[in-house]
Write a sequence for this structure.
């Protein structure tokens, strides 16, 4: 067993055990259920309303919380040495600018298209055929005319 | 845990050389670094999805697109994808339990939990296949988007392109994760880890599986909720 020592000696942390796993599972389930409840509440809201944007923001924060719990407890990152935690977490801050820059860019592109591309505004106002008419049988295949 | 009796002096300093300064074995840190690269891949996909959405005037309402449940028909937004999310979260829990059983050198528990994880993964893939088939039969595919925007206008094919590409990539990762877990199961049953004296390989497979679950958390939010 001599040659196994070098691998096994690293393997010291046992973390919180089954109790911690149960606790984190319950937290993740609760977060998911809250997200679903919020998502479902948005079904009946109009698309451009402010409350819809607020709820989307809350859902995003819940999503980040779920990500934290999975990475910290299920992947045991919390129990690693601080320097290793930083190896993983610091590069993720690149995402902050990544997301801001690209979404801003997308918005800017949208503004430019609407201002300078007359065909785009017309094209994006075309009415679409209804997808699943209410009185139609659910099992029937419907071949809709494509864009 | 194991003692360092085989070396003349214990390498106490982390950065003194001769040991990992992070106190993890090579394979584990390499798996973490691979997961970082995969994080940026999926991050790039999802951010490009966001950019395209911001750049487009109208977009389909996901609650109108994804509203069917196998056997129950239409009118149940969020239900099927919630089931898929829970399946993958539970399979993540069983994977953590497998890793923990490995810490305790409990081969039987490792086998049981690996089997449960594999079943969860296969169940998720089946659900995803059902979802894709249903959407296909509604006329959706790469380059074909039958769903109107939320404001009733004709929608862009970017919607279905992104959906099938990103969920396809994720599904492929789930599939490869299931294959890896099956290999882990076979190795466990053959007693490979008993002979080695540690179940660290299961831990590395566990990292990959949790990553797959994590990606679903983000994909689920970006496509179905937001």
């Amino acid at each position: 067993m001599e040659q196994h020592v070098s691998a096994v000696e690293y393997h010291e942390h046992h973390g919180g055990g089954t109790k911690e796993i149960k606790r984190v599972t319950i937290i993740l389930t609760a977060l998911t259920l809250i997200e679903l409840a919020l998502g479902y509440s948005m079904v009946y809201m109009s698309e451009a309303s402010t409350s819809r944007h607020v709820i989307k923001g809350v859902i995003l924060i819940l999503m980040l919380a779920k990500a934290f719990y999975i990475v910290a407890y299920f992947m045991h990152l919390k129990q690693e040495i601080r320097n290793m935690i930083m190896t993983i977490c610091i590069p993720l801050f690149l995402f902050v600018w990544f997301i801001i820059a690209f979404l801003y860019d997308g918005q800017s592109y949208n503004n430019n298209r609407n201002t300078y591309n007359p065909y785009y505004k017309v094209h994006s106002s075309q009415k679409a055929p209804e997808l699943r008419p209410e009185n139609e049988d659910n099992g029937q295949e419907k071949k809709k005319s494509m864009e | 845990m194991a003692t360092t009796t085989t070396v003349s002096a214990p390498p106490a300093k982390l950065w003194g050389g001769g040991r990992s300064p992070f106190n993890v074995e090579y394979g584990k840190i390499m798996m973490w670094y691979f997961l970082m690269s995969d994080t940026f891949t999926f991050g790039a996909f999802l951010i490009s999805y966001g950019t395209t959405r911001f750049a487009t005037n109208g977009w389909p309402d996901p609650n109108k697109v994804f509203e069917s449940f196998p056997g129950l028909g239409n009118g149940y937004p969020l239900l099927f994808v919630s089931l898929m999310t829970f399946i993958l979260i539970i399979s993540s829990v069983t994977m953590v339990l497998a890793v923990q059983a490995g810490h305790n050198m409990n081969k039987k528990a490792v086998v049981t939990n690996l089997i449960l994880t594999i079943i969860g993964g296969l169940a998720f893939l089946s659900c995803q296949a059902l979802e894709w088939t249903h959407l296909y039969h509604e006329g959706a595919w790469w380059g074909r988007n039958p769903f109107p925007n939320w404001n009733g206008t004709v929608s862009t094919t970017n919607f279905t392109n992104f959906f099938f590409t990103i969920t396809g990539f994720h599904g492929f990762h789930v599939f490869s994760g299931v294959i890896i877990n099956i290999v882990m199961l076979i190795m466990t049953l053959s007693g490979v880890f008993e002979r080695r004296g540690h179940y660290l390989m299961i831990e590395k497979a566990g990292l990959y599986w949790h990553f797959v679950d994590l990606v679903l958390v983000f994909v689920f939010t970006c496509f179905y909720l937001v």
Observations:
- Residues 158-189 of chain B form the longest helix (32 residues).
